[in-house]
Amino acid sequence: MLTKKKDVFFENLLLIIENIKDAAVLFKNDMENPADLEGYAEKIKMLEHKGDEYTHVIFQALNRTFITPLERDDIMALTGRLDDILDAIEACADLINLYNLKDRDSYLCLYARMIERCAIELQEALNHLIEKKYSQIHRHIVWVNSLENEADQLYRECLKDLFSTETDVKKIVQKKEVYELIEGAFDRAEDAADILEGIVMRS
C-alpha cells in the first residue's frame, strides 16, 4: 500500500520548530541549574547546526520545485525567522558560557520558559495550517504576540533591576547583552506568527 509522501517544506519547517523546542528546553534547564554551562551550550550549538541543515533542505527544495504548498516568499521568510529564533537561543547560551555567568538568573529562567511556550504555539499554528484548519490558528498567533509583549516588559524590568542592584560594570555589560539577545528571539517569533497570519488571511 502506497503512503502519502510528506511535503518537504512542511516537514522541515516542523523539524525546525521541534529543534527550537529542544533548544528552549536545554536553555531552560541550563538557566535553572547552571552547573554545566559549557555542556548545555555545546548541545544547543549542535541543535543550531541541525537547524541549519533543515533550512538548507528547504532552500534547496525551493530551487528545484515549481509548485509549492505556500507562496515561495512566505516559505523563505518563515524559514528565516524560525532559524533566527534558534540562532538567538544559541548565541545567548554561548555568551552565558563565555562570560561564565553561573549565578542563577530568575529573569533568564522566565525567558527560557516563555521561549519554549512560543515554540509550542508556533508548532500548533503550523500544524493547523498544514491541516487547513485556519480558524484555529489565530489563538496561537495571539499567544505568540502576547508572549512578545511580556518579553518586552520583562526586558525593561530586568534592566531596571540590573542597573539598580549590580555594582560590577563588567557584569552589567555582559548581562545586558544576554538579555538583549534572548529578547530578540521573541521579536523573531512574533515575525513568524505575523507571516502565518498573513498566509491565513490570503487563504
Beta-strand content: under 5%
Q: Assign an overall shape.
A: globular
**What is the CATH class designation?**
Mainly Alpha
Q: Tell me about the biggest sheet? A: none
Q: What class would the helix/strand composition place it in? A: mainly alpha
Number of strands: 0
The count of helical stretches stands at 6
Distance between the termini: 32 Å
Run of helices and strands: HHHHHH
The percent of residues in helical segments reads over 70%
Return the CATH architecture: Up-down Bundle
Overall pLDDT metric: 92
- C-alpha Rg (nearest Å): 18 Å
CATH topology, by name, is Methane Monooxygenase Hydroxylase, Chain G, domain 1
User: What is the total domain count?
Assistant: 1
Question: Superfamily at the CATH H level?
Answer: Phosphate transport system protein phou homolog 2, domain 2
Unreliable stretches, pLDDT < 50, 5 or more residues? 1-5
